[in-house]
Write a structure and sequence with these properties.
The complex is a heterodimer of chains A (about 325) and B (about 100). Chain A is about 60% helix and about 10% strand. Chain A has about 325 residues and is α+β, with helices and mostly antiparallel strands. In chain A, helix 2 runs antiparallel to helix 7. The longest helix of chain A has about 45 residues, at about 155-200. With about 100 residues, chain B is an alpha+beta fold. Chain B has a five-stranded mixed sheet with strand order 1-5-4-3-2. Classes of the chains: A alpha+beta (about 325), B alpha+beta (about 100).
Chain lengths: ~325, ~100
């Protein structure tokens, strides 16, 4: 299926794939902002943004102008109350996503990866912007403090430097929340329409999607894949540290496709099992100069001969003997 | 950055399959199972076949290979190291990237 400016007709297979995908996507992120939660989430973001601006400003100003200082503290308390009353799980979810995007990486690696890919909107880009923004805010606070101490004058540039980064970040955050809300709403709408059309019992199972609907389905697939990759990445280190990697000798690679499927499948399953347990029950060591291990695959009536390199956690499958144990077995 | 050569390299890379990849393979039909295994086995000899792209964003050595000559079109995500190729994820792709 290719992208187009015209309505896109889905074949029966594509329709099934789209419905499967949208059903998964619809429940993929239970914490995502949906329905009325969007309003709460936006107010909550606004409250946190104002709090992050007014509290440090109040702390700096109160030493020199207590009326303004107290006013800023009151604004900070009010905004905190607003954020608490309208609290959703959106900030927590966002924070968790930002943290997960950093796991296992040094900040220099993150910066070079973002630069290499010219990523404009990724979570890792956001972290870099956030860190830059925090530095600007801290610089603004120091500048404001020095200005007040030296001349008792408010340095308005310093105030702008303090206000701008948190304001920009929380505005961006609210915008992404809104976009995500819109996306999940679209997923539900397209899913409902397709399901209704399928349930209508029409003999013609082909369905035409508008370009906008098709874009939702495409994005759903991309999101589904990226989520799957992110999930798998969490356990890659464990897989690599605990598993034995496998090399198939050329004669094994040549033999495998010539086998009937059941035999092929049984042998592959047995070899896959060696990744985690290279010495399963029934495996026996052959007496030879380079010790080899042999394992019978009873259902396939074949034996797998392989070498185990514990130091490098590698297995080399050197031979598959059909009709039971190889002649070389002890 | 590694380049897709399309040529068969002399070196062999031991393959390690993520447990989720193994589980997912078990759910495939016979034909697709054999096709997918043959694509994965091919990475043992050439982890940068035609169409493979380095995924620098995920880190050094990570790669994506999209095969549109198998049905449904399938994306493979894996990591190439000097002494190993780890197949981390694969998934069918029926629609354009959105």
């Amino acid at each position: 299926v290719k992208q187009s400016d015209n309505p896109v007709t889905l074949s029966e297979e594509d329709l099934e794939a789209a419905l499967r995908l949208l059903a998964v996507e619809d429940v993929a992120e239970p914490d995502a902002v949906r329905g009325r939660d969007l309003v709460y989430s936006l107010f909550s973001s606004l409250g946190i943004g104002i709090f992050l601006v007014t509290l440090p400003l109040g702390l700096a100003v109160v030493w020199f102008n207590w009326i303004w200082g107290v006013a800023l503290f009151v604004a900070a308390a009010g905004s905190l109350l607003l954020a608490s009353l309208t609290a959703t799980r959106a900030p927590e979810r966002r924070t968790r996503r930002l943290r997960d995007s950093l796991v296992g990486s040094e900040i220099e690696e993150v910066a070079s990866a973002v630069w290499a890919k010219r990523e404009a909107t990724s979570d890792r880009t956001l972290i870099l912007i956030l860190m830059g923004g925090a530095a600007v805010t801290i610089y603004g606070l120091i500048r404001l403090g020095f200005g007040l101490a030296e001349s008792d004058q408010v340095d308005w540039l310093a105030v702008i430097l303090i206000i701008l980064p948190p304001l920009a970040f929380w505005t961006f955050f609210a915008w992404t929340e809104y976009r995500e809300f819109q996306y999940f709403a679209n997923v539900s709408t397209v899913r409902n329409r397709l399901e209704t059309q399928v349930a209508s019992g029409s003999n013609d199972r082909e369905v035409a999607l508008t370009p906008a609907e098709f874009e939702v389905v495409s994005r759903a697939e991309t999101q589904h894949i990226e989520r799957g990759i992110a999930e798998a990445m969490k356990s890659v280190a464990v897989t690599e540290s605990q598993g034995y990697s496998v090399i198939l000798a050329a004669n094994v690679i040549e033999l495998l496709p010539t086998l009937d499927f059941d035999t092929f499948y049984q042998i592959r399953q047995t070899i896959d099992g060696l990744q985690l347990d290279p010495r399963p029950e029934g495996a026996r060591v052959l007496s030879s100069e380079a010790p080899e291990t042999e394992l019978l695959v009873e259902q396939a009536g074949a034996a797998i001969t392989y070498r185990i390199d514990d130091e490098n956690r590698q297995i080399v499958v050197v031979k598959i003997t059909r009709n039971g144990w190889s002649d070389a077995s002890s | 950055m590694p380049q897709a050569s399309g040529a068969t390299a002399e070196k062999s890379y031991p393959l390690l399959l993520h447990p989720d990849v193994l589980k997912k393979l078990e759910t495939e039909t016979a034909n697709r199972y054999q096709t997918l295994r043959s694509v994965i086995d091919g990475l043992q000899f050439n982890p940068w076949p035609q169409g493979a792209e380095a995924d620098e964003y995920s880190g050094p050595g990570f790669a994506r290979l999209e095969r549109d000559d198998i049905q449904p079109r399938t994306l493979f995500f894996y990591r190439v190291e000097d002494d190993r190729v780890t197949i981390i994820y694969y998934e069918e792709r029926n629609f354009p990237r959105g």
